[in-house]
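F.,

This is the one I mentioned.
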């Protein structure tokens, strides 16, 4: 399609029009989009048109993204966002953030993607942009799907579909339906997935378009997954037909990365149909393309399938060759995955520190407003002894409330310090190990050892960070949240160990309100006691009771392990830590054990409002 600027168009509007053309061109011709965007940027600078300059940065960023220059793309998109924010152009600012979120989502940095899509959604809602809001909701649905939160993802995607249908936006409706189909496909609900994918195909039609190609690919994915569950591959012919249609459209559109990707899928179908030479031809072409383009994940997929295909053909020499290549690529993917994990943890760590600071500032601001209000009341009602008496009662109550809140602020500061010192130190250790692995790239045995240490340390950091963030968040102060935390923890342990863990958590716990410190101490006593039993007791069974009696919470963790002599075993098992946690909650903790008779940890903590 050719675009022509009308001669009567205001000169100052030309860069804005060029930017819009460039953005629309980026998906099919990234190089042309970059050239047009740079021309538009020069004109915008000449005319000092900030709106056009922001738009040209946005289209240039998108052009670089479509040409796979990610860092450069993000720089221009962020510059666009900042310019739009400066001139208070809310719609433009929101669109730039949507584009940044899309890039981070495509690169599987879902935490970062959320930090841009959530405020973009708020801006669209603020300016009543229903189309923009629907697009943001679709994007949030995709992110939550990838984060493993299917219920939240489904709610956003359904809302997005309804909005796009109301606006008669067929292609956007198809995109949202496609995302819903992927959600159901991941859950193994193939009939629902096929329904949404075929609805998507009905909207996009069978013409040569990117949307139609993806629709055919999605339908094929369902048939292929269904085929994998049957030894005779009953649906492989259907998968092959739809993959081939998708492949042909991508070839017509000259979308080489998509053609290479479809080569893998069509090649897998040929493999299942025992058409080995054609499978090998397509898979080899795909492997060579992605290897040259630096797309390790897809190159690994092609190499792995080539190894399987050669093995099925009986050509074991080639099978071993591609198995070795796929193993090398897998190592690279694992190393990159660890680096991404570390980067995400650092991002989450910084976000949590920021959240803690905001909570502290809001609390101080609220306390300051209360102080001013109290002084104002004293001035107004000083003449009346009755009102003064009432006011003094109010002051006493209010001071007690302030003291309690100051105590909570102090605790949050302490937890923030733990987050900074403990977690920060652990993350630095992980980063050091990662750098060591990079330096030992050729030594696979050392690399495997280092990667295991990185994986172990990363899991430990995530566990500790989860405990700290959970204990800081006041929305978990209700007993139901504490009970669910304990139950989820035990459920996770049951999956990871063969020890039989029995649990009895009193439902009456739900009716109580816990302070941050109390629920933290209770949870960590349980966690310390059970971890000790799993690590040192050699137990076959562990029993946990958490009861709400007349005046006390009673914790009892028993195991049938080998036990120990308290007089001999004095340190290293966290006994003092559990005892101190119980004391900090004005309770007591007793540890009973003897050789051959297992161990019992019992903590009795007064229920706060009954003291």
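My design for it:
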């Amino acid at each position: 399609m050719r675009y022509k600027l009308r001669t009567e168009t205001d000169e100052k509007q030309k860069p804005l029009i060029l930017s819009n053309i460039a953005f629309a061109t980026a998906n099919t011709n990234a190089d042309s989009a970059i050239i047009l965007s740079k021309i538009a940027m020069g004109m915008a600078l000449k005319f000092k048109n900030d709106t056009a300059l922001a738009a040209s940065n946005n289209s240039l960023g998108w052009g670089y993204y479509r040409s796979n220059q990610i860092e450069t793309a993000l720089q221009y998109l962020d510059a666009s966002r900042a310019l739009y924010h400066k001139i208070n152009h809310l719609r433009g600012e929101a669109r730039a953030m949507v584009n940044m979120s899309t890039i981070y989502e495509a690169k599987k940095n879902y935490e970062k993607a959320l930090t841009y899509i959530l405020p973009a959604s708020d801006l669209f809602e603020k300016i009543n942009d229903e189309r923009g809001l629907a697009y943001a909701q679709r994007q949030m649905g995709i992110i939550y799907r990838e984060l493993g939160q299917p219920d939240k993802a489904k709610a956003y995607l359904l809302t997005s579909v309804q909005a796009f249908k109301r606006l008669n936006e067929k292609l956007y409706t198809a995109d949202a339906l496609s995302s819903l189909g992927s959600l159901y496909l991941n859950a193994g609900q193939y009939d629902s997935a096929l329904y949404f994918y075929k609805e998507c195909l009905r909207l996009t039609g069978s013409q040569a378009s990117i949307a139609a190609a993806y629709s055919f690919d999605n339908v094929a994915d369902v048939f292929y997954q269904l085929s994998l569950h049957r030894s005779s591959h009953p649906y492989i012919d259907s998968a092959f037909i739809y993959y081939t249609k998708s492949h042909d459209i991508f070839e017509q559109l000259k979308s080489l990365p998509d053609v290479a990707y479809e080569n893998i899928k069509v090649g897998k179908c040929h493999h299942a149909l025992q058409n080995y030479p054609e499978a090998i031809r397509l898979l080899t072409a795909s492997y060579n393309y992605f290897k040259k383009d630096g797309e390790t994940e897809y190159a690994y997929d092609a190499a792995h399938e080539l190894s399987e295909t050669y093995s099925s053909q009986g050509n074991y020499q080639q099978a071993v060759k591609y198995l070795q290549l796929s193993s090398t690529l897998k190592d690279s993917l694992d190393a990159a995955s660890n680096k991404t994990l570390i980067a995400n943890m650092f991002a989450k760590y910084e976000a949590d520190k920021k959240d803690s600071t905001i909570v502290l500032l809001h609390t101080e601001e609220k306390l300051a407003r209360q102080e001013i209000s109290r002084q104002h009341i004293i001035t107004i009602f000083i003449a009346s002894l009755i009102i003064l008496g009432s006011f003094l009662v109010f002051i006493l109550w209010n001071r007690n409330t302030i003291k309690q809140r100051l105590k909570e602020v102090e605790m949050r500061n302490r937890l923030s310090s733990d987050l900074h010192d403990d977690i920060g130190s652990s993350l630095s250790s992980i980063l050091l190990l990662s750098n060591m692995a990079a330096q030992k790239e050729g030594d696979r045995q050392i690399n495997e050892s280092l990667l295991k240490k990185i994986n172990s340390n990363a899991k430990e950091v995530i566990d500790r960070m989860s405990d700290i963030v959970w204990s800081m968040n006041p929305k978990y102060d209700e007993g139901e949240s504490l009970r669910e935390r304990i139950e989820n923890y035990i459920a996770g342990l049951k999956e990871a160990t063969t020890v039989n863990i029995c649990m009895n958590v009193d439902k009456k716990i739900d009716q109580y309100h816990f302070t941050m410190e109390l629920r933290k101490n209770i949870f960590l006593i349980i966690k310390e006691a059970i971890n000790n039993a799993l690590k040192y007791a050699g137990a076959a069974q562990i029993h946990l009771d958490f009861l709400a009696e007349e005046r006390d919470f009673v914790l009892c963790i028993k195991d049938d392990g080998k036990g120990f002599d308290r007089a001999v075993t004095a340190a290293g098992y966290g006994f003092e830590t559990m005892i101190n946690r119980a004391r900090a909650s004005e309770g007591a903790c007793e540890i009973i054990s003897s050789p051959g008779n297992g161990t019992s940890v019992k903590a009795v903590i007064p229920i706060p409002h009954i003291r």
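The longest helix spans residues 316-380.

Talk soon.
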